[in-house]
Amino acid sequence: MKKTKPPRERAARALCSHFGVPENIVRDKKPMWTQYLDMADAALQAALSPEEWERVKAEGPEE
Q1: Which residues are CB-contacts of 11 (< 8 A; sequence separation ≥ 6)?
Q2: CA 55 vs CA 6, 10, 61: distances in Å
Q3: What pLDDT score was predicted for residue 19?
Q4: Per residue in 4-59, pLDDT tens?
Q5: Rounded Cα gap, residues 12 and 41, in angstroms
Q6: First to last CA, the chain
Q7: Are 37 and 12 in contact, with CB atoms under 8 Å apart?
Q8: Taking Cα atoms as reference points, which of 61, 19, 17 lies closest to residue 41?
Q9: Based on the number of CB atoms within 10 Å of its own CB, is 42 exposed (0-12), middle (13-18) or buried (19 or more)?
Q10: The pTM is what?
Q11: What share of the chain is helix, strand, coil (3-state, %, to 5)?
């Protein structure tokens, strides 16, 4: 069974898709979606309660 990606990664990948950027191209030795983690975090933090945000942040991915 395929493991579900953490919410932060899913949000960052969605932002890549929204902006027409391939998610998995490599930049600075990391997948491009990692460049969108800050924006994903801002949206998730605004949408979630502080407790939910801490739980989501703890799920990863590492920055």
Answers
A1: 40, 43, 44
A2: 11, 15, 12
A3: 97
A4: 999 999 999 999 999 999 999 999 999 999 999 999 999 999 999 999 999 999 99
A5: 8
A6: 26
A7: yes
A8: 61
A9: exposed
A10: 0.89
A11: 60, 5, 35
